[in-house]
Amino acid sequence: MKEGNTQLNPVLMCVVFAGFFSGLQEGVSYHFENGNYLQIPIINIDKYSQVKHNIQNQMFPTFMDTLRSFRYFYIGFSICSWLGGFMAVNEAYHFMLSISMVAVTLISIFYVKLVMSCIRICMRAHTTVPLPSLSLENMLEGAASSSSLLSLLSLQSLAEATVESGDIRREIFSLSIPGGHPHMWNKLQSVTLQTLQTMNGDLGKLLSPPPPPEPKEDEVKNPLTSTPLHPNFGRRVVSPNMRMLAPARTDKSEDNLPKAPAPPKWVESLNAQWTNFVTSLSKRPIIGWMINEPQDLPYREIFTASQGAIYAAEILSYVVRASIEEDGYGVVQKDLPAILTVLLKLEESVDRCRVLQAAGNYHHRKRSAEPADVQLKQELKCALKSAVYRITIAFKEHILVVPLEADLAKKISNCHNFLEA
């Protein structure tokens, strides 16, 4: 207020008009540029994870959109304020160069756009979560599918259902009518144990590779072509009325095949130089780390499928723990030795991989630089340990009488006494 005349505050006007301008942009985008479109995720994600993931992904695009809107609004507001008489020319010039005004305007525009993005994200999660629950039969069929994605998603849904839904567990423990057979439990056990045994078998092939097959001793080979000949080759014919014929050959002799011309000497020299150059590069500290194949690559390829094994271990452990009170027919306890054996042997294989890494047989990386597929190995280790402890704690001292191998029974005893780390 100056001598009875009212003077508008340009800072307040800028903040108000910045919010109005960004809101008008969002309204035009919503009604005329398909801004009300809600992208539905193709994979079922819980509400918290979906909102968190989408908000994190929208922060940078929203900030870039704020910069584009600020570019037009700030110049236009300064020119309109000068032409409308709200500010003089020198005031408009200083206003455009003010760092505080730039920051306040950016915050105002960014706030409005971020609120609109959060509204769309929350509406998307509200309209897609929760999805209609699948039946137990559908989840088991999907888990046994040959499609990796369908099997993983079905195992995820089955893991959540076995933990939260008592109706699903009662259906698992039920017996078929007529016949009285636990079809649901047998199918669930087959799917989950198959997932765990597959990973254990793949790790076993790398940890203890099978020896190469030995050649047969009675097999006679042609010294020219190194191909096996007929077993009767070289034997003396007893009958005087028959003479020995040449052995039948099923393949053509290599001597009759045209030989490829030898490459020129300069080509061989160039190949040798290139090989030496690549070998020298692979021995350099930084370049070799970039071009050499990590020594743990075969193991990492197996551990990329650890998520399915994690879900399988959780399904088995929660169902077995609930069977103490909810399984009135005892359909689970009879298979307890097989379940514990698979869980403990897979845990032992994962431990052997960790021991080899500590011994230096792997390409060493820091924990902070490990990709997600490498961290899955540690998550698998924790899931297996938690599953064994979950079963052991639930059965208390009765777990000690389960028939197992000596080394596995010792591990169960250590878990029972909380000595297994």
Walk me through what this model shows.
This protein has helices spanning 10-32, 47-83, 89-96, 99-128, 136-143, 148-164, 166-173, 183-207, 265-282, 285-291, 297-303, 306-326, 336-359, 372-395, 406-416. The chain is an all-alpha fold and 421 residues long. It has 2 domains: 10-128, no CATH class; 136-208 and 297-416, no CATH class. The N and C termini lie far apart (74 Å). Mean pLDDT is 78; it is low at 358-368.
Please give a quick description of this structure.
The chain is mainly α and 421 residues long.
How is this fold's topology laid out?
Layout lengths: L9 H23 L14 H37 L5 H8 L2 H30 L7 H8 L4 H17 L1 H8 L9 H25 L57 H18 L2 H7 L5 H7 L2 H21 L9 H24 L12 H24 L10 H11 L5
Helix pairs in contact: 1-2, 1-4, 2-3, 2-4, 5-6, 5-8, 6-12, 8-11, 8-12, 8-13, 12-14, 13-14
